[in-house]
Amino acid sequence: MSTEPTPSGATGLRVEARTRLGDVALEIALSVGAGECLALAGPSGAGKTSVLRTVAGLLRPEAGRVTCGDEVWLDTAAGVDRAPERRRCGYLFQEYALFGHLSAWRNVAYGLHEAPQGEREPRARALLERFGLAQRADARPGTLSGGERQRVALARALARRPYALLLDEPLSALDARTRAAAARELGGVLRDTGVPVLLVTHDFAEAALLGDRVAIMDGGRLLQEGTASALAARPASAFVADFTGAVVLTGEARHGPDGVTVVALDGGGEVTALEGDAGPAAVSVYPWEIALARPGETAHDSARNHLDVEVLSVTAVGTRVRVGLAAPQPLTAELSEASARALGLERGGRAVASFKAAATRVLPR
Amino acid sequence: MSGAGRGWFAVALAVALGAVLTFLTLPIVAIFLQQPPRDLIAALGEDGALDALWLSLQTTATALALILLAGTPAAYLLATHHFRGRAAVITLIELPLVLPPAVAGIALLAAVGPATLLGRAAADAGLELSLATAGVVVALTFVAAPFYLRQAVSAFEAVDPTLLDASRTLGASPARTWWRVAIPTALPGLVAGTALALGRALGEFGATLMFAGSFQGVTQTVPLAIYDRFATDFTAALALSAVLVAVSAGILLSVKLVRGPDPLRG
C-alpha cells in the first residue's frame, strides 16, 4: 500500500445507516464534502457516536452504505464491509484512548507502521512539533496534561493522512481554560486537512464554532441540518430551538391581522410573531434578544412583545448577566452588566420583558 | 474510647501479627538452620539431587511455555467475546483449580493413560506419556494452567476496549492489536498469572506421582525427590527444599518488581 496517498476522499464522505441501538432506532443519511466539517450535535444517547463508529467500521449497522471518495467502505446490500484498519479514518476518541505503555511519539508512530522503519520516528516527532509538543515527545500519556493528550491524540489520528477525520467530543475532556485555546487550534487543523470531517458534540456552541454545517440529532435521527446561524434563526422544531439555546414558550397560535401570528401563551400573556401556523405552538426567542425594563416602562419602542415578569434569579456569566424570569412560563434574558445594574434587578422584583416580533419564531408543537 | 483502650487494642493487633509471622516464617527459616550451609551445598552435589533440579527446571519451563502459548490467546478470546456458554467454558477451565492433586492424577490416567485410546495413539506417535518426562509436563500443565488462565482473562477484561478500537482505526489488524496493545496493557496481570502458574508447577507433587511416577532422571522432580529422600537422607531433602524456597522467593520478588507493591491480589 502506498504511504503517500493522494486523498481519494477528495470527493467526500457519504453515510447511510439504519440499525437498532438498544431502545433507539438509528436511521440517518448524511454527506460531508472534502475540506468540510459537519458537526453532529445532540443530547447524549442521540446516537452520534454510533454514526462515527459506523463510518470507522467499529459498528456494523443492519443496513447501510458508507463511501469515501470512490472507495466503498460498507455496503450491506452488496455484502461489502471493510475492516476498520482498511478504512483509513482518523478517529479522535472522546477520552483520546492513548496507549499508556507507549511514549507520545510512539503513539503517533503507531499509525505509521506501513511507512519505512527509518521514517516513522522523524515523521512522528515532526507532527508533534507542529502541535507544539516537541519537548513532550518522549513523555508517557500518563504524565501529560489534558490539553497535551488531546493534541497527541489529534497528531496520532492525522499521522496516517486519513481520508476522513472523525472527532468524538474533541473538547469535552478539557477544562474550561484549555478549551478555548484548543478550539482555536482545532479549527485551524480542520481547515488544513482538506478531508471530510465529521465531528460529534453535545454542545451547540461548540458545533457552531467548529462546524461549517451543523446537523442536530436526537433519538437516532437527524432533525435539521444547516449552518449554525440558519438553525438558530429558523429552527424547524421546538427541540432544535431549545438545543440551539433559545427560550421556548408554549401556547396556542392563531392568525392575527396583517398576516402576523398571535400566540396566547399557556399560563397567560400573548406574543406576536411575523409568521407561523395556527394551532398548538412553541414560541422560541433567544435570551440576548430579550430586553428588560422597570414595570410600566418599555425597553425599546420597536418591540411588539411585552410580558410582565417576575425576577427569579440574577446570575453573572462573565461580563453578561443571565436573568431567570417567570412569565409565568420560565424565560431567560441575557443583558450586559451595566444595564442589569441600571435596572436594579433583584430576586422577587417585577419587570417587563420585551422582544421584537421579528425575533420571535413560532414552531408547530 | 480512652487512650488506655486504644493501647490495649494496638497491642492485641501486634501480637496477632507476631503470631502469624512466626508461624509462617519459622518452618522456612528452619530449613536453612537445621544443617550448616556447607552440608546443604554438599548434598546438592549428589547426582540424584542435580537430576531432580534439572528435570524440574526443564518440565516447568516446558509446561509454562505451553500454558503461555495456548493460554494467552484463549484468555483473550474469553475476555473479549461474550458468546453463549462462555460462563460454562470458564467454569470448566477453572475446575482443575479446585481438584485434589490425586484426583488430577487419576483423571489424567483415565484420559491419556497407557490403557486408553489417546494414550496408545500418543505412544504410537512416539510420545510416551505415562512414566515418562512428557507425562510430567502434561501433569504440570494440567494443574498449573488454570492459575494463569484466570489471571489472564481478568487482565484482558480490564483493558479499555476503546484502546483496541483506536488501534484498529490506526491501521492495525486484530492480531497486531492483540500483540501491540492488548498484551502490553495487560502485561502486569499476565506476569502475575505466570508467577502463580510457575509456583504451582514447580511444587506439583500428587498428580505427577500418580500419572508419571517417580523415576530418578525421568519423572522425579524436586518435590518427588524431597519425598523420596526425607526418610533416608534428610540433609539432601533439606538442601532441595532450600533451593525451592530460594526459587519461590525469587519469583515472588520479581513479580513485586514488575507489578508494584501488591502483586498477587485478585
User: What is the count of β-strands of chain A?
Assistant: 21
What is the molecular shape of chain A?
A: globular
Question: What is the fourth-level CATH superfamily of the largest domain in chain A?
Answer: P-loop containing nucleotide triphosphate hydrolases
The total number of structural domains of chain A is 2
Strand content of chain A: 25-35%
The count of strands of chain B amounts to 0
Level-2 CATH architecture of the largest domain in chain A: 3-Layer(aba) Sandwich
Strand order of the largest sheet of chain A: 7-8-9-3-10-11
Q: State the assembly state of the protein chains.
A: heterodimer
Domain module count of chain B: 2
How far from one another are the termini of chain A?
A: 54 Å
Task: Sum up the structure in keywords.
heterodimer, A: about 375 residues, alpha+beta, Rossmann fold, OB fold (Dihydrolipoamide Acetyltransferase, E2P), five-stranded antiparallel beta sheet, about 25% helix, disordered N terminus, B: about 270 residues, mainly alpha, MetI-like fold, 2 domains, 12 helices
Task: List the topology elements.
The complex is a heterodimer of chains A (365) and B (266).
Chain A (H helix, E strand, L loop, with lengths): L12 E9 L2 E9 L4 E5 L6 H9 L6 E6 L2 E5 L4 E2 L7 E4 L11 H6 L7 H14 L15 H14 L4 E5 L7 H18 L3 E5 L2 H7 L2 E6 L2 E6 L1 H6 L4 H6 L3 E9 L5 E5 L4 E4 L5 E7 L5 E3 L11 E13 L2 E7 L3 E7 H7 L6 E6 L5 E4 L1
Parallel strand pairs in A: 3-9, 3-10, 7-8, 8-9
Antiparallel strand pairs in A: 1-2, 1-4, 4-5, 5-6, 10-11, 12-13, 12-15, 13-14, 15-21, 16-20, 17-18, 17-20, 18-19
Chain B lengths: L2 H31 L3 H8 L2 H34 L5 H13 L2 H12 L4 H8 L8 H25 L3 H9 L4 H29 L3 H7 L9 H8 L4 H26 L7
Helix pairs in contact in B: 2-12, 3-7, 3-9, 4-7, 5-7, 5-10, 7-9, 7-10, 8-9, 9-12, 11-12
